[in-house]
Amino acid sequence: FMKLLYLYRQRNSGFSIEGLFAGLTDYLRQNSAYQIAEAYAPRRTLSFSCLYQNIRFAARQRADIFHITGDAHYLMLALPTRRTVLTIHDCVSLKTQLSAGNQLNFRILWLLYYYLPMRLARYITTVSEKSREELRHFMGAGLADKVVVIPNAYDPAFVFAPRPFNADRPTLLHIGTAPHKNLSRLLEAVEGLPLTLLIVGNLSATETGALRRHQITYEHHTNLGQEALLKLYYRCDIVTFVSLYEGFGMPVLEGQAVGRAVLTSALSPMTEVGGAGACYVDPLSVADIRRGLLRLWHDESYRQELIRAGRANADLYTIEHISARYVALYHTLQTGH
């Protein structure tokens, strides 16, 4: 068997990347000829010393094919160019440093996390056309032309589970409370409506105050495991994801997969990911968010058509489909064509 090694950032640095690739690795263990292995960088890269130790760690690894799963892009500096796949999920770290005016940090990140790894990598993947365009913006067309879009797969645990729509008092599920998740405008949009809002993520004092001020009935959930999160999807009538910025937008797919109406932003990559199976609104307009929500609520034929289209769209993002695209890329690494 060929050994395929997935390289991750340090354990407990986050869960999004690890969760996305957990489904892929589990599937390939059962359905491919590869011997699947995983390795985690030993240190958080808050200093050049930690970064150097992680690079040395990567240099000691042995495999036929290496795949850097994201974030720790600089590990490419220690790996064989012709046998390594580099996945870059987004450019949010570069955008953050630019917005804060930290030119030195921006240049360090640009060089060590993006430019040098992308120069060295033979094959680069990203999860959406939006992310590829951002790489083109920051890195130039020459490097961006090497990037192949392979979208994320949703977890197979998200299975179709239809339920009657509660038209008297619908339940909305909102995932994420970081500023770009746009919770504040959603709260304004639902003011005065008889509904229940399920919120996943930490709430600030400002957000808690807004919930009281707008007199919204809500539940607040944090640190959820997969099973608990699934139960919220199954309980809800509408998934709301009016985010201002995403590299992909997994809640759109998850909502479609379980058979829920999805309200999301008319922005890339949400429009790319959601296809014909979502109601798109201007996330900067409270009035438009409310308009879209009310249409999903009261127009049953429209809602049912979106649910049908959403289920068909989600079928394009199953673990079987996405893993096949990665396996084809690994085969190209092995054969050279």
Tell me what you see in this structure.
- The chain has helices at 16-31, 48-59, 92-99, 103-120, 129-139, 141-144, 183-189, 205-213, 226-235, 250-258, 270-274, 286-298, 300-314, 319-335; strands at residues 2-8, 34-40, 65-68, 84-87, 123-126, 147-149, 171-175, 196-200, 217-221, 238-241, 261-265, 279-281.
- With 337 residues, it is α/β, with parallel strands linked by helices.
- The strands form 2 sheets. Strands 2-1-3-4-5-6 form a 6-stranded parallel β-sheet. Strands 9-8-7-10-11-12 form a 6-stranded parallel β-sheet, with helices on both faces.
- Strand 1, helix 1 (16-31) and strand 2 form a beta-alpha-beta unit.
- The longest helix is centred in the first third of the chain and has 18 residues, at 103-120.
- The chain is globular.
- The mean pLDDT is 94.
Number of helices: 14
**Biggest sheet statistics:** 6 strands, parallel
Give the integer mean of the pLDDT values: 94
Let me know the number of strands. Answer: 12
Shape: globular
Helix content: 40-55%
Uncertain segments: none
- Give me the secondary-structure category: alpha/beta
The spatial strand order of the largest sheet comes to 2-1-3-4-5-6
The H/E string reads EHEHEEHHEHHEEHEHEHEHEHEHHH
Cα distance, first to last residue? 20 Å
